[in-house]
Amino acid sequence: MKEITRINHLGLRVKQLDISRAFYEKLGFEFITGPVGPEPVAIMEHPSGVNINFILNADSDCAKNILMDTSAKNTGFTHVALEVTNYESALNEVKKLGIAITGEVEFEGAKFFFIRDPDRNVIEFHQPGARKSG
What we know:
Layout: E1 10-13, H1 17-26, E2 30-36, E3 41-45, E4 51-55, E5 79-83, H2 87-96, E6 103-107, E7 110-116, E8 122-127
Parallel strand pairs: 1-4, 5-8
Antiparallel strand pairs: 2-3, 3-4, 6-7, 7-8
GO molecular function, one term: lyase activity
InterPro entries: Glyas_Bleomycin-R_OHBP_Dase (IPR029068), Glyas_Fos-R_dOase_dom (IPR004360), VOC_core (IPR037523)
Organism: Marinobacter zhejiangensis
């Protein structure tokens, strides 16, 4: 569909706004507004333009990610990949913040590492490899 121009926002269901907000602020996101609307929703945005809508209605006793913390391979979005310009710099910054790295991969020149947010949502930091021509 030619009318699609970009991803507008990501919707993440979270348990507690204050905890999620503090975590994402460490990653450079800025609080925009919320809670608003019937769900309710709070909105944060990174200076790069990445926008996250926190859906503030998660069950408080939910302790795992239904897609990633089970042996069943359920359908659904498993993670968000944030592109970075410098893999080593991003990795070191996340480590300095005290955030656990849950995996690192290098594949065909691309490098990426993974973390989990407070609600166990998976975030990938991705530095693309050189594009192959032809």
